[in-house]
Amino acid sequence: MSRQACRQTLVSVIVLAGLWAAAGCTSVGEYVRNGLRVGPDYRRPAAPVADEWIDSADPRLETKPADYRQWWSVFQDPTLDRLIILAHEQNISLREAGFRVLEAREQRAVVAGALFPQAQELTGDFTQTQRSTKTATFRRSSSQIESGNVGLREFSSWRLGAGLAWELDFWGRFRRAVEAADARLDSSIENYDDVLVLLIAEVATAYVDYRTVDQRLAFARGNAEMQQESARIAEARLRVVAIDSEIDAPQAKSNLARTLAAIEALEIARRQHQNRLCVLLGMPPHDIGYLLEGTKPVPVAPENVAVGVPAALLRRRPDVRRAERLAAALHAEIGVAQANLYPRIALNGSMAFEAAQFSDLFSGGAWSGTVGPSFRWNVLNYGRLLHNVRVQDARFQLQASLYQETVLRAHEEAENAIVAFLNYHDQLRLLEQSVEEAQEAVRVAQAKYRAGRIDFNRVFTVEQLLISQQDQLATAQGNLAVSLIELYRALGGGWEIRLEPAPTE
To answer: Rounded to two decimals, what is the model's pTM?
Structure first.
């Protein structure tokens, strides 16, 4: 290396060191540890998670790890299985989330392109020039005029060239931007998974609601038949004992009419649940009886459920992972902002062929070119850039807090679903017993009424009790199934279905 080149290198090192010292923010040691990138490296924010569930001592809860990929299979309902597959294939909201993933993926590729020469262009032009004779160009000596086209009034110019500018990622600005884009891509994937988890839970809930209404309708229609029989008996007694039974027949008919009105309301709810299923399946509302396969009982929830440990929520729940990935993206933006405090160092080059005649364009003498380094440094905007670093840090801290809040809400949802699942189990057993007793009371009361041993008010009372208890029983069956669905949703189960191959016909 020549002495002049050594001096130039030394000057460059001294200048860079001075620039670094002036910019501040990141120490040399931290810069080296971070892979020649300014700004702090990311660490996942701490999130408060309990060691165990509140009801972990209940024998119906299993804290061992479990497979939640197809949790709906615990209901052993092929119709539900088919509906979830259709929703996965056809749901519009899920498709929208998929397009967001594609957008983030391509945006990441755009950001990554900045690691390579940012300006790469080919240029070409042709000009025909006509000059005025009244300008100073034509008031020169003959020797000047003879050189080149200085004194020519008319001349042509052909040019074909290429240019390149490559800003070196000396401070890691582009790599931090890629890091942020990677995290945003991850967050879009987690958003897709979160939409999928919610979709599966919503389809299962809508299906359970539909079956619950079906069960309530079955009970109501059975009670209507019972009440028709009571009205027939009351009318028969009216013909035999008019004085004692004159109020029984109207009362029995009124009771029947109220039950029939309730059936109409249940038919409305049944149609609305069916319409909801249609929308979730990505199709316009219509009769989907061919998918629902007629009347079936409410899906039965098992006695036990595997819930793992609360800390597993951080790994399983897509919304928690999405919030964490957004925090990572904003953290990387801090490094991008810090890199703007330092000078931008670039390599620039260009080459071109220029000639007055096209035939001379590629001759040896027509070639020209430039090459050399450059730097730009917004020293007068240092205060604004420094405040921007603080803005990015504040945004990260905000997202870190949102991540912690998301973890807390996830824990709350899981605890709420657990206590609902356990208590609905207990409620269901009590209601089953209550319905059995009410059915027996109705049987005894009707028999005594036929024998004339009691008045119709007693029959009316026990019939209303049976109607109420049966309706509560059907509702409790649905609530238990829905509570299990909510529990699996709170645990973040179901999104793995996107990793599985599509089913073959």
So the answer is: 0.83
